[in-house]
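Structure ticket #2291
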Amino acid sequence: MPEPTLRDHLFSAVLNLLNREVSEHGRHLTQYFHLFLMYASLGVAEKQQLLKMDVASSLMLVALDEGPGPPIKYQYAELGKLYSVVSLLVRCCDVSARCQSSVQGQAPLPNPHGDPALTQPICVVQTQVEEILFGKPSYLKKVIEDCNSHEDTLKLLRFCCWENPHFSSSVLSELLWHVAYSYTYELRPHLDLLLHMLLLEDSWQTHRILNALKGIPDDRDGLFDTIQRSKNHYQKRAYQCIKMMVALFSRCAQAGQMLQSHGDLKKKWTYAVEWLNDELERVSDNKRPYSGSAQYTYNSWSPPAQSNETANGYFLERSHSAKVTLAKAYELCPEEEPEEQETDEHESMSTEERTAARTPAQPAQQVVCQVDKSASSTSPRNARPDARSPAEVKDARSPTEGKHSDAPADNKSTESPSDSRSPQDTVQKTGRDKTKADNVKSVGKMGSLGGSNAETGEEEVAVKTTDTAKDVSSSVSTSVVSSQDETSNNKPATPSTTSVKSPALSVKSPARKDPEPDTTDSEKTT
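Resolution: structure written out below.
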């Protein structure tokens, strides 16, 4: 066995500080662990020396507060350099004993995530390190919780998950728990780690993707379950999960094929994308986004939307990244279901068209019957003569009607008081003139309402004229008798009114005042 060198004595003295001094000087932890990191980065010999001194296992126990000395008393201890040293030393070891292929009878694939400076591992992983790292989940939880954004943590998880289903399941379980329950502004590092774990191209990649999307049975909910549970009160959590899945389906061909081939994944993804679209439209309706063409003014300017990944809040913001994510998510949506729906619609439309083409006569006949009825009801032959107003009847009179109607007035004006005619002759002449005028009036009215059958109209006018003449003659004789009685009794005669009603028009003509007889001549005669 070779004799210890000076550097062996120096590092032995530095490691002895873990027994007491390190726990009492928590502010200088970063400088203390940074010494081991710089020394291990020098080369293969330095790494080999630290592995022989069990530096990796000692630092892992310190992180778990199980170290050789008392726990670190400093409340906010910075252990990032400690995790980096452990990651670097573990990746120099051989962990193939923990690896197995998902294909039965096939050897596991070689691990490409070891230390790139080494052509082969320095040694087999130490028993204590293997027990802490692979046997207990405590150190894994500590690393993911405290050092999730460091590059060395990602390298360690990649190295240990390669062709290792048990460790992969533990990592997925821990990451899915943080995705479901961590604060929304702390999700980004955990989602990045989960994405990188799902992008590992080993024989267990498909199993990891399915467990991440659907969940680990009897252990953790999947990403779709987290999205469904966070839609109402933790919208930013659901949005970040959708964004990570968009990156997964875009960068991983196997994940894209799984999305297209699994029906339940199709539906869940479609529902998630529709929810994101509805939520962004709702946000745009409540808050009008800034338009690039408008200028910044006091009234129209609004600050840009906050990031949905770093801002503290529950509800979604309409940011540029969210709109880009939605556009990419729509591109990844399967297109088979809409095409099937379109074909079903075309088939239903063709069936309706066939049924309509079989019986087109019945609705056409009904329409024709309705049109005939409406036309017959509005034709001038079947129109009721009393449908016209008195004003229309008055306008339809012929010019000759007015001339004849004025005849009695002309007779009255031209009649001289020295006329030798008797009152009876005057009354009879006036009645004859009035009868002629009424006959002309009725003929003019019937002519204005004339239809296609002119002969029938003339016969009706002749009959109605005869009836009217009889009524007028009887009324005139009655008026003559009354006038003679009044003259004999030396009383002024009361003018009588005659109402001539045309049965064809059923319009009551205004009462016409008969010309008064010349009382002076009658008195002279008597």
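Closing remark: DSSP finds 25 helices and six strands in the chain.
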